Amino acid sequence: MSDFGGMEDLLQDFLIEAGDLLSGVDNKLVDLERTPNDTSLLNEIFRGFHTIKGGAGFLNATELVTLCHLTENLFDKLRNAELAITPDAMDVILAATGAVRDMFNDLERGQQPAAADPHLIQQLKLAIAGNLPAGGAKAAAPKPAPAAAPAPKAETALVPVAPVVVSHPIGEDGIDWHALYAAVTGVEPTTVAPVAAPKVVVAAAEPEKQLDDHVAEEIIKAAIGRRASDKPGYSGPTGRREVERTRDNSIRVDTSRLDQVLNLSGEIGLTKNRLNALRSDILNGRSDSETLHALDVAVSQLDLLVSDLQNAVMKTRMQPIGRLFQKYPRIARDLARSLGKDVELMLTGEETEIDKTMIEDLSDPIIHLIRNAVDHGVEPTQDRLAAGKTEKSVVRLEARQEGDHIVIIVADDGRGMNAERLRAKALEKGLITDEEANTMDERQSYNLIFLPGFSTATAVSDVSGRGVGMDVVKTNIQKLNGTIDIRSTQGKGTTFIISLPLTLAILPVLVVRLGEQPFAVPLSMVREILPIEAKHVQEVGGRATMVVRGEVLPIYTLSGLLGWPQEYLPEYGVLMQTAERNYVLAIDTFAGREDAVIKSLDAFRPKGVAGVTTLANGQIVLILDMKELLGTNADAGGTTREALLRDRMPAAA
Length: 653
Description:
about 650 residues; alpha+beta; 6-stranded mixed sheet; 5-stranded mixed sheet; 22 helices; about 45% helix; disordered C terminus; phosphorelay sensor kinase activity; transferase; two-component regulatory system
């Protein structure tokens, strides 16, 4: 149950506005550390915290107000030049902003925040008094929301604290009530023989009484969201509010964009009325050239208006990527400080707009890439100086729009990547064979870092070394129908280039055919379409290949990938390009390009199918997930030269 009865809407408004303010404060603090004499920055930070404190006070979030007030007092002394900005003072301030963010997480679950760490409060008071000892605080990057927050003291009466007898430890719904009760209360219940229905008996000083099933269940469920995480290792169900808020589905839209949608809707309504009138005229026998011309004009106008409306609606989904970027300078600063490095994160293209549904899914991949750049890419200070570089390293995070794609770049000026070392490490871990290593070029060697379990770290730390992270990056980017590429120069740095479709709602596709059956493949993967001719087809290792501008590419038949019989000989090859490989997809023929409105198959999704769309002629077509098809059916999709050209050999000769 929420602690903010009647103020839910106000709470949500506060969390959105205060969250943006706090992210802005974090970024300004990183800037302030580089320019400690910038009084305008200090004043902006002071105002930000003052605004957060005011909103928290209105919501009666006492502990949040207390923390903000102390931090605000420290800012006040700094901006009045009563105290100097030191690295230790900055650590305390950043630790305070991290604690404020944790309190926001409590508010998101509908709970009043618990008191801040007493050590942090003490450090803030010492900093205000000018008595902060050197190294007295360590700043930490904002922590993710915990699974559940500790229960406020006033609500502990909701949880039965006496030992209980759980007569049916595993309920019919699969819930382990024995484990849940222990996790919630810290008291191990006694298990007796199962009975027909789950019962919870409270053993107290008064005569034993049995609780109603529903009441007992609700008591434990009410406590799960507050107390389950107190039990180490417990990973059971969480509170309902937390589940509902795992993903923010709200969006802020400029009213001018909504006005445009409204105006276009009105014009479409007028055009519809005109078409209805023309339809009535035609049904009544009018088919003169003037009527047909008017019909043609009305249909063309409707086509234009629908296209404009589609674009306008898509723009309502677009958000500046700066809202995603704004949390990264703090993360990069804290990690660099913990590693003893001097790193500046430079942001470019923050105004670039991207589909709102992508922003949350991009967060973790970009964090991994930034951490990778700071930890692995950037050399230690002494190594940079020995190489003739500046002590400070620059990591660049850039976004820009290129055609119907968004390009995101994470680049560092560090040591670069060594292709030979990567191949040797992959061999050592058994991730590739000697034959594969000998045939790899530099680009393929760089892509080894995306293999699960691959890591070049010599020791495992809390930052890296476990071989997870880069494979997650690649997987998440692929889920967004995007690609990731690596460019690196030894001694100069490494650049990761992410290319994403402008929106996930509309996907340009190439419609290909097997016999009379059409399929759609993402146009972003298509480089060109080539006729399959005998003189261009070679056989390498028992597999058919094509030489395209000096590049030997394997041929996969679409029928083989789908497990269909090959009724016709493939006439065309679609040259496909992905981050991992280039290949030729053999098809019967193709029907052209379409802008597909994707409909997902949530209830049932066959392997290798990304979704469905409807063509202009009304036919329903499957959109193929080529990466998944190649991952599962690559062997079946391969073919021999003889099989591919069996009826063409005489003609070719």
